[in-house]
Amino acid sequence: MKYYIIAGEASGDLHAANLMRAIREKDDKAEFRVWGGNRMKAAGGVVVKHYRDLAFMGFAEVVKNLPKILKNISFCKQDIKSYKPDVLILVDYPGFNLRIAEFAKKAGCRVIYYISPQVWAWKQTRVKKIRKYVDKMIVILHFEKDFYSRHGVNVDFVGHPLLDALVQEKVTPKEIFYEKYLLDERPVIALLPGSRKQEIARMLSIMLEVMPDFSEYQFVVAGINTITLKFYRSIIGEREVKLLINDTHNLLHYAEAAIVTSGTATLETALIGTPEVVCYKGSLLSYWIATKLVNVKYISLVNLIMDRLVVKELIQHDFTRENLTEELNLLLKDQSTRKRIKNDYRELHKKLGEEGASKRAAGLIVGMLESR
Asked: For the chain, which domains are there?
């Protein structure tokens, strides 16, 4: 079978790669043409476009890059038309993927959406498009299944693929990890500033402001290989901060606490068990528009899944050095806070279902194609 898969960011690249490996176990003749990253390439995909060329954050950034986005959409449609896949698999990234879903469905291609866009949070009108142009939604959160079922969408819940990704990883022994990155004996505070240049520049500069308040700790930034070292260093400056690339999970295993930009990383941090404070700050225009459109109580996946405040969220004007210092002191020094968070994390893990999400999703996709 021929599979065309579109993932527009780092987390999608990870989960799509695991899905591809699971599909190949059931379809040894599987061919993959993909929009994604290095992980999808390593899983056997022919990469048409890298996600680093697709990631635009915020309303102003999208408007600014609209000609490039439209050019990518046009190119993608022609590429699908030429490749003639048996199925199109879309991974999150809704602004782009829903346009491609409409085109592919009208062209007679099967369309599967794996990892739902957050239509339950904002732009719920997109559900109508999904119902019309997507043959099956494969969701990773329990409440998403209830949401789509209420709207008449063909939907299956498979559990969260992060559980698979974390189980597959081997934790580097502490001595080796510390030696590799030249860490000293002080406890670690992890900084996870995001995956896009504009958010890294905005988030990391504020995260680093708390360093003088925690001189007894060492700060380590979790970087990614699609962003240059020069870019990170331009923000870090002369501060004594360690930077590691593509080794976030090991870092979180040994960190006493983490400051995390809102996104999938908040859930990764919780599943590893590291106490965290979740932060986000966008442009004034993007934030103003979001306040008019977003319809959820929380921004972090941890709190959304638990439907209560498990980890503190510092958003926009609340994301300041003073507030960060206060929250970090609680996470690091208040044992009752640490114990409560650890207990909540265990409950969160149970809510996400069992391991094997990638294999269950692959079974649904290959089964649908074979029954055609």
From this structure: 2-159+356-370 (3.40.50.2000), 167-351 (3.40.50.2000)
